[in-house]
Amino acid sequence: MIRFIITRLLNGVVLLFAVATIAFFLLYWGAGDIARQILGASASQETVDLKAEQLGLNEPVFSRYGEWLSNAIHGDLGASWFTNQPVTEAITSRMGVTLSIVIGTVILTAIVATILGVSAARYGGWRDRTLQVVSILGLAIPGFLIAIFLVRIFAIELGWLNATGYIDFTDSFTGWLKSVTLPIIALSIGAMAAVAQQVRGAVKDAMRQDWVRTLRSRGISENRVVYKHVLRNASGPALAILALQFVGLLGGAVIVEKVFAIPGIGQISVTATTQGDLPIVMGIVVFTAALVVVINLSIDLLLGFVNPKVRLS
Amino acid sequence: MSEVTPIQPEEVAKEPSTGSHLVRRLLHNPVAVVTSATLLIIILGAVFASYLAPYDPNNSDLQAILQGPSSEHYLGTDGAGRDVFSRLLFATRYSLAGALLAMGLAAIIGVTSGLIAGYFGKWFESFSTWVVSLVMALPGIIVLLAARSVIGPSLWYTMAIFGLLLSTGFHRLTHAAVMGVRNELYVDAARVSGVRNRSIISRHILSVVRAPVIIQMTIMLIVAIALQAGLGFLGLMDNSIPTWGGMLGDAFAKLYQDPQGILWPALTIGITAMALALFGNALRDEVERSATPKKAATGTKAAEIVLSDVPTVIHQPADADREDLLRIDGLVVGYDQPDGSLKQVVSGVDISVKKGEIHGLIGESGSGKTQTAFSVLRLLPHGGRIAAGTVHFDGQNLATLSESEMRKVRGARISYIPQEPMSNLDPSFTIGSQLVEPMRKAMGMSKAAAKARALELLDRVGIPDPKRTFKSYPHQVSGGMAQRVLIAGAISCEADLIIADEPTTALDVTVQADILDLLRSLQRELNVGILLVTHNFGVVADICDWVSVMQDGRIVETGPVGALFANPRDEYTKSLFSAILDEEHARGAYVAPAGTAAGGK
After folding, report:
1. Helix orientation angle between A265-275 and B140-151, rounded to the nearest 10 degrees
2. pLDDT 10s digits, B393-403
3. What is the average pLDDT across A63-73?
4. Touching check for A217 and chain B: CB below 8 Å?
C-alpha cells in the first residue's frame, strides 16, 4: 500500500511538472507585446521598454522558465504584473471560497446520486425512469444556466438579498450556508446526473454477482445485502466518476461564481485572463493541477480502502 | 494441387449491422423524429439567418433599448437597443458553428489517434495515454482561460483549442472499443487470411466504433455548446460576433431592469441541448436494441402451465417409515416473457429428501436441475418464479411463504453451497466477517461467540491456519480453500437441509475428492439432508444415497443409487451411462508400427 501511495504521488509530481512546463512555454511564447498590453496604447515606447526590462521580458524564455521553476519549488510563484500582490496569496485567499462550494457540491452529489442510483437499480420502474429524465436534463442544461434561473427566481422574484454574494464561514456559518446553497444546487444537478447513472450501473452489475445470492441464502436481509455488500462493491466505479466530476466542477464553479457574485477563483481567473496577467494565470494553472493531483490521490486511497485487492497488492 | 477455397473476409466477418438499418429504425422512433426535426429547424434558422433576420444583429438603436416584443421587434430589443430575434438567429449560427468546429476537430483527431493506439499499440499507445491523463489533469475552462490570455478573444481559435481537449474523449472511446475487437476471432481470421490492415480497420473496426462515436458526438456538441456559452457569458469572447453566451451575459447584466431578457438565449440553448441529448439517447436505445436479439412479438398470451405427463421410472417407492425432510410436489418453474407467456424450465417435478440422506439430482445443463434447487431457497434469478406446485419443508409450504418468513428459513434451516467458490464470496469483506455475519443474524450470537465458532468451523472443514484465513480476503485464498469456507458457512447456522449446487465442478480434480469426503463426513456427523445437484455420475456414485435423473424439466427416473446404477430403465438414463467412458475395458498399450518405433525425436 505504501509503495502504491508513493508511486501515485510520484506520478502526480511528474504530471504537475509537465503541466507547469507546457503551460509556461505556451503562455510566454504565445504572448505578444506584454508590456504594451499592460501600459496601454497611449504609453510611450520608452516606458514600455522600461516595463519590459523590469518584468524581465527581454530575457530568453528558457532562462525565465528556469528562474520561475526554481522559485516555484521554493513556493514562490511570483507577483501579479498589475497589483504586485504575490500570486500564492492572491490565489489561496480565493481558492478556499471556490473549494468550499465545490466540496459542498461533491458531498451533496454523492448523497443524492447514491440514493437515486441505488433505488433505480434495485426497484426499476418509475424510479428508473425518473433517473433517466434527470440524467438527460443534467447532461443537457449547463449548470450556470440553472444558476441564472435560480438568481432570477430567488433574487428578483422573491427578493431574497442573500441569493447572491458570499459570506465567509469564519464570519457566520449560517450566513455561509445561505450564500453557498444556491451555487451548490446549480452545480450539483449535472454532477448528480452523471454520478447517479454510474451508481445505478455499478449497483446493477454488483447485484448480478453470485455472492449476492449466497448472502441471501444465508438469511441476510435484502437491505443489508444492498447497503452493506453491494454498495461497497459498487463504490469503486462511483468514486472514480466522482473524482472526474470534481475536476469538472472546479471549472463549472468559475462561471457559477460570476452569476452569484462570489469572490472565488473564477473572478480572479477572468480578470487575469483579460489583462494578460501571466504570473497569476500560471499560478491558477499550477494550483488547479495540484488540486487535481491531490483529489485523484485521495480517491485512489479511498478506492484502496473499499477494495482490498488494491490495498493489499 | 489441393483445392482450397480462400476464406472470404465477408464470410468471416459477423460484424454488427449498423447503418441503413439504424437510420430506418430511427425514423420509426418518435423521440428521434421529433428531436431531429427540432434540430433541423434550428440549423435552418442558423444557415438562413441573413435572410430571416429583419435587422443587422449588431445595429444598436439607443432610442429603443430593452423593449418588449412588438410587431417591429418580434422578441424585443436588448440593453443596447439591438433586435433580439435577429441577434438570436446569428448567435445560433456562430454558436453552432463554433461547437461543430470543436466537436468535428475532436472527433477527427480523437478517432484517428484512438484507432492507431488501439490497433497498432506500441509506443504510440503509451504516449497517447499519457497525453490524455495530462489533459484530464485540468478543467477545460481553466485551460481555455489560460489560452485566452495569450490568443485573445477569438471564437474560432478558442473552439479549436477546446476541440483538442475534447479529442481525448473520442480517443479513449475509440481506443477502448478497438482494444475490445482487436483480438476478436473474426479480426484474427481476417488478418490471417491476408486482409490488409487498412481494410480490417475500415471494414471491421470502424463498424464497431461507429455507433458509439456518433453518440459521443451528440454529447460533445452539448459540452461544447455549454462551455462556449459559459465563456461568452463571462464576457471573454469577441463582442463583434453575436453568440448565445454573449447574449446571456448582456441580458444578465441587465437582469434587474429586464428579467425576461435571459429567456430567449437560455431557451435556445436549452432546447438545442435537450434535443441533442434526447436524440443521442434515442440513438443509443436503437443501437442497443439491434445488439440484443429480437424478442418475441408482443401480445397478450395468458400464462399457461403445462405439466409433463411422461411417467417417471420409479425403482423403489420412498421409504415411508422415514419422514420427509423436504418434499417437492408438482413443481413448475417459469420465466415470464414480454408477451405474457411463461417460459417453463421445470415442468412438474417431485422430489423428496429424507433426514440424513444425500439426494443426487443429475442431468445435463439446461435440464432444470439448478432451477429446482434454487426454487427450494426461493432464490431464482430475476424474472423466474414458482408457477405451480408445493415445496414442503418442516410443515411449511415454502412456495407460498412470505419473503420475511422465508428469510428466517434461509441460512438457519436450509443452507446453500454454490458451484463457483471464488465468485460466491464478497470480494470486499474478509472471510471471517462473512462467516460471522449470518451467525449473528440467524442465531443471535455475540460477536465473540460467532468468531470463536467461525474459527472452529474453519478448522473443522480442514483449513490449515483458521486464524489467518479468518482475516484473509477471498482473493487471497485458493479455490479449494474458498469452497471449504463456503461449506463452513453452510453448516454454520446448523441448518437441517443443505442445497449443494455442483459443489465440486469448478475445482481441480485433486481437490474434488477431498471436498466430497468432507461433505460426506459432515453430513454423517450433523445428520443433515443434502440435495446435491450435479452432472457427474461419479459424484453420485461416490456420496449419494438416492438419485433422480432430470431431463427437459422433469424427473425421468428415480431410485436408490445402487438399484438405479445396476439397472437403468429409462432410455435417457441409459444414454447418460453409455456416455461415460468405459474404464473397465482399458484399451491395450499403444504399439508403434514397425520401423518408426526407434525414430522418436
Report:
1. 20
2. 988 899 999 98
3. 89
4. yes
Instruction: Select the CATH number that applies to the domain covering A95-310 from these four: 1.10.260.40, 1.10.1020.10, 1.10.3720.10, 3.40.980.10.
Output: 1.10.3720.10
Q: Is A129 on the interface with B (CB under 8 A)?
A: no
Judge whether A157 is closer than 8 Å to chain B, CB to CB. Answer: yes
Nearest CA in chain A to B280: A136
Mutate to test the interface with A, among B95, B129, B145 (most CBs of A within 10 A): B145
Cβ-Cβ contacts under 8 Å, B222 against chain A: 139-140
**Interface probe, candidates B131, B133, B138, chain A, greatest A C-beta count within 10 A:** B138
User: With an 8 Å Cβ cutoff, is B157 touching chain A?
Assistant: no
pLDDT at residue A186, as a whole number: 93
Decide which of B402 and B15 is more confident: B402
* pLDDT of amino acid B258: 83
User: Do the beta carbons of residue A48 and residue A26 sit within 8 Å?
Assistant: no
* B386: β partners: B333
Band (pLDDT 50/70/90 cuts) for residue A276 is confident
Residues 283-342 of B with CB under 8 A from A: none
pLDDT at A216 over 90: yes
A40 vs A196: which has the higher pLDDT = A196
More confident residue, B558 or B442: B558
Chain B residues close to A213, C-beta within 8 Å: 379, 416, 418, 424
Query: Which has the higher per-residue pLDDT, A250 or A308?
Result: A250
Nearest CB partner across the interface for B473, out of A30, A156, A308: A308
Nearest CA in chain A to B142: A251
Of B27, B34, B84, B19, the C-alpha closest to B57 is B84
B493 touches chain A (CB under 8 A): yes
Report the alpha-carbon distance of residue B111 to residue B217 in Å, rounded.
11
Question: How high is the pLDDT of residue B58?
Answer: 79
Residue of A nearest to B490 (CA): A218
CB B136 within 8 A of CB B223: no
3-class SS letters over B26-80: HHCCHHHHHHHHHHHHHHHHHHCHHHHCCCCCCCCCCCCCCCCCCCCCCCCECCC
Are B256 and A156 an interchain contact pair (Cβ–Cβ within 8 Å)? Answer: yes
B489-544: per-residue pLDDT in tens?
Answer: 998 988 999 999 988 888 888 888 888 888 898 899 988 999 999 988 888 888 99
B557 CA: distance to closest CA in chain A (Å): 29
CATH 1.10.3720.10 residue window(s) in chain A: 95-310
- Which DSSP state fits A86? B
The residues in B 375-404 lying below 8 A from A, measured between CB atoms, are: 377, 379
Residue A18's identity, in one-letter code, is A
Contact assignment for A136 to B442 by CB distance below 8 Å: no
Q: In what order do the strands lie in the sheet with B414-417?
A: B313-314, B554-560, B546-551, B358-362, B529-534, B497-501, B414-417
How far apart CA B269 and CA B274 sit, in angstroms, is 8
A137 chain-B contacts, CB cut-off 8 A: 274
Q: Which residues pair with B329 in a beta bridge?
A: B390
Task: Report the DSSP beta bridge partners of residue B557.
Answer: B313, B549
**pLDDT tens readout for residues B391-436:** 999 888 999 999 889 998 998 899 999 988 889 999 999 999 999 9
Give B 201-220 residues with CB within 8 A of chain A: 219
Interface check for B479 against chain A (CB to CB < 8 A): the answer is: no
- ipTM, interface predicted TM-score of the complex: 0.88
Q: Report the mean per-residue pLDDT for chain B.
A: 84
Higher-pLDDT residue of B178, A92: A92
* Cα–Cα distance for residue pair B487/B435, rounded to 1 Å: 10
